[in-house]
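Pilot study result, target chain (477 residues):
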Amino acid sequence: MNSTDPVIRLTRRHFFGRGATGLGIAGLAHLMGGDSAAHDGLAGLPHFAPKAKHIVYLFQSGGPSQLDLFDYKPRLDELHGTELPSSIRRGQRLTGMTASQTSFPVHRSWFEFRQRGESGAWISELLPHTGRVADKLSFIRTMHTEAINHDPAVTFFQTGAQLAGRPSVGAWLAYGLGSENRDLPAFVVMTSRGSGRVGQALYTRLWGSGFLPSRFQGVKFRSQGDPVLYLSNPEGVGRDRRRMFLDDLSALNSIRKEEFVDPEIETRIAQYEMAFRMQTSVPDLMDLSDEPESTFELYGESAREPGTFARHCLVARRLVERGVRFVQLFHRGWDQHRALPQQLAKQCTDTDQASAALVEDLDRRGLLDETLVVWGGEFGRTVYCQGLMTEETYGRDHHPRCFTIWLAGGGIKPGVTYGETDDSCYNVVSNPVHVHDLHATLLHQAGVDHTKLTYRYQGRQFRLTDVGGQIIRDLIA
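Predicted structure:
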């Protein structure tokens, strides 16, 4: 075989350069991997008529306390201060933060709960706006995961695996279904932080494409400066000159592609083209001057401030209106090991009104039926107190065995509370839901059979749900 053979060149290129492909366009490559506009989806997909054309995932990073927000346990009032029985703990693995504790005292929630709406869902006083839309929501109380630390737990929810390197949920959907809008990415990401502590780091691999072509990774929108890095033309370069430059560069890249048979070169060409189109589409998207005052009354005044969770929820609605398939919002700061009552209240102030507003807004505009909204974190919190238990405050450690998320729209039954936990909110009693089950259900609502959306890598077929995943049929309308 000749050394100029394209197969050899492809291998050599991947070995020496694929990890650093496009150094000359590092900025664009970093953000523009989501150019699935040139991709109409795989042949044969969707596998059946989708109920959800769009998914908005409101990921609450850090682990919101289900005990203090959604899973009301009145018996904790009488158990407060008593030792959590070993028969309930069942030898559960502990984090390094509580493994050295010699006592595990039960701590009730400080917050009042009441039933909301006709569905009678129990919701904490910290979430009055969520309570207002309770009849539009479906609560899963029995989510569970094997991961007990943040990084593997968040990675699991985003990619279906605890170890880094797999494609994210949005990347799988962009790969399988393509985009509805050629001027915007199929997969958009926004990150915000709470008004309290900063919280855990969020890595770009959480919205990455893994072993899928890089054009399917999420495109992160920024809160300051250009919404997307390097979107503006350099000083002195007009749109016409930019167009000429891109045409010439595309021709050179096409020659290179023929020579090296590298699919990432095609991605690079598509990235430039998407960036050019986004110079018009993104400023229009991010300009909220056409929104009436009633919008800001609905989402809250913080929706006027770039970088807030409320602002991102409003932008998410605008993205859905423009046909973006998957929108991922990350909100940090839910990791309350200490001072939980004070910190949790701040997090709820940051997110409660905007989360409810997004559901209401989509519903008013006739978009909720075709948009699936997901709210939840990577695990829950323990019923026992972490650290010193006082009259002034308390904390809770990570708890992967059972926690609560909610879904709305996209063909999901509204007004449902699914699954039951024990009186200590420590173990699942009925209807457990695993991470793979959630992913299987999200894909199903998007018209995708999770067992058939696969990609061959390192000698075998991979899928988002690995070898597991059961659709939660009881939640489908």
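One observation from the pilot: The chain has one domain: 26-475. A full batch analysis is planned for the follow-on phase.
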